[in-house]
Amino acid sequence: LSNSVSIYDTTLRDGAQMVGISLTLNDKLKIAKALADIGVDYIEGGWPGSNPKDAEFFKLCKDNILKGQSSKLAAFGSTRRKNSTCEEDTNVQALLFSEAEVITVVAKAWDVQVTRVLETTLAENLRMVAETISYFKVRSKEVMLDAEHFFDGFTANRAYSLECLKIAVKAGVDVVVLCDTNGGSMPWTVEEVTRTVKAELMPWPHVRIGVHTHNDTELAVANSLAAVRGGASLVQGCVNGYGERTGNANLARMLLELISVIGGLQVKMGFTCIPPESLANLSKLASTVADVTKQTMSPTQPYVGSAAFAHKGGIHVAAIRRMPESYNHMDPTLVGNAMRSVVSELSGKGNILDKAEKAGLVLDNDVAGSVLAHIKQMEREGCAFENAGASVDMLIVRKGKRYQQPDSQVNQAMVKLSVGGKSQVCIQLVQKHELERFALPAQVSAAEGIGPVDALSHALRSALEKHYPQLEQVELADYHVHLVEPSTAHKGTLSTTRVTVDFTDASGNKWTTVGAHTSIVEASFRALVDGLEFGIVNCSEVPKLDQSF
């Protein structure tokens, strides 16, 4: 086996075919830059014959994004049409006009696809393959053949599928890519077939074998790895597994499995895929592509997900505090991720201690036990802390010896309506509260907002910002409401409203708080106070609240 596996990214073409993804020209350029920055070998820019946007992309990417980079730009398209010539075929001419240094040609490798979908003869399909590849080779292009439906074709008519590869090799192709187009092959089949192809192409040792898998049976990554075991030295895939139907091999995951020190081929099988220094940027790559494509990253995505190295159970956290590898398969920092403990009713003292240490606080076991008991009670009442770390931080801070809880708080609400043909409704809240937790005298603040949470936020700020100007940089980013049904034992009681609030500051820091109560206003108030107080503690150089325990 070769010591290297090339990575061929097809996010900009195959990934863009996923329902829900629509990329602008600028989006494609941003993704191309992110891929080039980590050292991906090939970046497939799209199908220049299919739309004007892709045609424009190739020029801008070649002249700007890839200038001075090692990544190669590939253009994707089909063979010439049946009973035609390459000179007459507009798609072939568009590929040539793209000036991409790599041309990837897709062709049928399953006999029934040729006769029933292309509606041509098996012999004509072979001529289409050979003539298209020859056309680009005499023009000094690196050429790959994507043998579509190869594994299904191999099962149905082994001789013909192999002949499709051999005719391409004789025409000068550089890489033959075996495609599991329907995503239904099993890993052991993929490895065996790839090994067979490797043996069949032994007379042409310069020709490389690649693999392109789909995820219809959740085996795209496993099939790609199996193909490498069978002799493939190039893997095609998409960042975050985007693609047609259920997606392609997750290239962010594939890269990690190819090169990370624990889970990838680079350590376990001795392969090199991208520069080792790029490993720590993989989490950033996955996040960047998700942002550009406007897709939500799965927190459980292996290696790069926010929960990939998160631990919730008390036994697990207690163990990793003593030995991190006890419940982590690798050091997450190698791929730009981080290990973290999550606090919930399933936690132990170790979760609290770990959270405190991460926040730069020091507390003893007794205080940790008190915080944990409080959290368990609050979760019983409807809170959920696993995604509201700032609320946990504030629960810890409030256990400080000099910290004073407010004596009382009263909510008063007034509704102001705009009438006379106008439908706008504006809610005004008057929030009277004891501000001892902020070392301020009791005062009444009033503010208007579009909805109760906005009004509450403005009311709190009007009382606090003149004393804590750092709150001017804190913004309420998002707000979620969840109705928690009462347990069976408490049927007939009022349902609890759980409010989660996301905050951000001028530096791009983000934090989340939670509040729960039968009143949505009270639940919102609790979450807002946690979030603003967290901002006071963490967003400036002013003296912080007492943190001695």
From TrEMBL:
Its EC number is 2.3.3.13, 2.3.3.21. Residues 5-275 form the Pyruvate carboxyltransferase domain. Belongs to the alpha-IPM synthase/homocitrate synthase family. The keyword Manganese does not apply. NCBIfam families: citramal_synth (TIGR00977). Pathway: Amino-acid biosynthesis; L-isoleucine biosynthesis; 2-oxobutanoate from pyruvate: step 1/3. Keywords: Amino-acid biosynthesis, Branched-chain amino acid biosynthesis, Isoleucine biosynthesis, Transferase. Pfam families: HCS_D2 (PF22617), HMGL-like (PF00682), LeuA_dimer (PF08502). GO terms for molecular function: (R)-citramalate synthase activity; 2-isopropylmalate synthase activity. InterPro entries: 2-isopropylmalate_synth_dimer, AIPM/Hcit_synth_CS, Aldolase_TIM, Citramal_synthase, LeuA/HCS_post-cat, LeuA_allosteric_dom_sf, PYR_CT. Signal peptide: none annotated. SUPFAM superfamilies: 2-isopropylmalate synthase LeuA, allosteric (dimerisation) domain, Aldolase. GO terms for biological process: isoleucine biosynthetic process; L-leucine biosynthetic process. The keyword Transferase applies. This is (R)-citramalate synthase. It catalyses: 3-methyl-2-oxobutanoate + acetyl-CoA + H2O = (2S)-2-isopropylmalate + CoA + H(+).
